[in-house]
Specification:
It is a single chain. The protein is of the alpha/beta class. It contains 9 helices and 7 strands. Strand 1 (about 5-10), helix 1 (about 15-25) and strand 2 (about 30-35) form a beta-alpha-beta unit. The longest helix has 29 residues, at about 105-135. The radius of gyration is 21 Å and the shape is globular. Bound molecules: NADP nicotinamide-adenine-dinucleotide phosphate. The site of NADP nicotinamide-adenine-dinucleotide phosphate has 30 residues, from helix 1, helix 4 and strand 5. GO terms for molecular function: 17-beta-hydroxysteroid dehydrogenase (NADP+) activity; estradiol 17-beta-dehydrogenase [NAD(P)+] activity; estradiol binding; NADP+ binding; protein homodimerization activity. It is an enzyme of class 1 (oxidoreductase).
């Protein structure tokens, strides 16, 4: 039986790491997994976990692949000994947290480069062969942050919104080539994501005003609560990837959790955006005045112009 060749980006930790292990240790031994990492120095724990799970050595291989570098993507592609990739998983991604004005110049372009251009580069490298073979599956790790704006995540959301447009466009075009594109829309997942945020965890607050800092602390409190109540283990999320991978007619979107769907629906139901914005403001900044100039404990510094929460 010919094995399904899967190549996954971003396997040093988190979802990519767990998905690579899950597929490579599948009892059917029907997958050959190319787990790719930006830096192969980080591959040790993946191999240790693979050995602990009794993963057959022939089912897993690691390759260096930095999605910011098209040469690195091309070299990784050339090292796939089967000469084909049946399932491409574009998973590599990085977050950026904090007030927009506090992001370092390089941080914004770096996150867009990894999350958006990096996904495009990877697709550009693998799609032509899939088209020639008239067969292929593409799974992209999406986010609820790609379906709704979240305060203090503007650039990250912009990058994940971009993936929605990218994948939806390709999903319209590619079925006649036998290629199916699916987004795996994740809510909060317990991974190293928060520790690996561009510019470090916690978000930069340098030079921001007192009201923004106060709102940021409310946001952080809200996030902690959402994570406590709703964060999923990566093992749970990887099963959603498997559902998409095995579907005879894959859908464009799969959701790791239904918890945030009412908010996503609110965006669509009121196309003015007002209902969603109000609901999100209530959820995150519960007790804050919603209009500029209302003051309060997190109000503007004396002498500073009033600023409305975003
Ligand atoms: N965790 C969540 O709550 C959550 C929610 C929704 C969506 N997601 C998405 O899930 C995906 C995986 O994130 P995760 O939660 O598993 O976090 P993670 O543990 O931080 O994994 C992110 C992976 O992407 C890799 N990466 C970063 N820059 C790269 C580059 N230039 N080239 C190749 N790989 C690169 C990281 O490698 P290094 O270690 O080398 O940096 C790491 O392996 C991301 O796309 C993220 O946006 C996560």
């Amino acid at each position: 039986m010919e094995r399904t060749v899967v190549l996954i980006t971003g396997c040093s930790s988190g979802i990519g790491w767990h998905l690579a292990l899950r597929l490579a240790s599948d009892p059917s031994r029907s997958f050959k997994v190319y787990a790719t990492l930006r830096d192969l120095k980080a591959q040790g724990p993946l191999w240790e976990a693979a050995r602990a799970r009794g993963c057959h050595p022939d089912c897993l291989e690691t390759l260096q692949l930095d999605v910011r570098d098209s040469d690195s993507v091309a070299v990784a592609r050339s090292r796939v000994t089967e000469g084909r990739v049946d399932v491409l998983v574009c998973n590599a991604g990085r977050g950026l947290l904090g007030p927009l004005e506090a992001h370092a110049a390089g941080a914004v372009s770096s996150v867009l480069d990894v999350n958006v251009a990096g996904t495009v580069r990877t697709l550009q490298a693998f799609l032509p062969d899939m088209k020639r073979r008239r067969s292929g599956r593409v799974l992209v790790t999406g986010s609820m942050g790609g379906l709704m704006g979240l305060p203090f995540n503007a650039v990250y959301c912009a990058s994940k919104f971009a993936l929605e447009g990218l994948c939806e466009s390709l999903a319209v075009l590619l079925p006649p080539f036998g290629i199916h594109v699916s987004l795996i829309e994740c809510g909060p997942v317990r991974t190293a994501f928060q520790d690996k945020l561009e510019g470090g965890p916690g978000g930069a607050l340098d030079g921001t005003d007192a009201q923004t800092r106060h709102l940021f602390s409310l946001y952080q409190r809200h996030c902690e609560q959402v994570f406590r109540e709703a964060a999923q283990d990566p093992e749970e999320v990887t099963e959603v990837f498997l559902t998409a991978l095995r579907a005879p007619r894959p859908a464009l979107r799969y959701f790791s959790t239904e918890r945030f769907l009412p908010l996503a629906r609110l965006r669509l139901d009121d196309s003015s955006g007002c209902s969603y914005v109000a609901a999100m403001q209530r959820a995150v900044f519960a007790d804050e005045p919603a209009e500029a100039g209302a003051g309060g404990p997190g109000g503007p510094e004396p002498g500073a112009p009033p600023a409305a929460p975003q």
